[in-house]
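Review form for a predicted model. The reviewer records the input and the model, then writes brief findings.
Reviewer: anonymous (R2)
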Amino acid sequence: MFNLFNKNTPEKPQDVKAIREALLVFIKQELQKMEGGEGKHIKGFQLYI
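Model under review:
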């Protein structure tokens, strides 16, 4: 469904903070696509895992 870590980059997230950051950036990008813009209307979001 989502190819979060299937990017063609040689470096993969190494620790928990890097994985969390990659996940949040990915979610933000997907929300921006659904909104159809730059995401300026996205004020924030909370994610509980």
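Findings: The mean pLDDT is 73.
Further findings: DSSP finds one helix and no strands in the chain.
Recommendation: see findings above.
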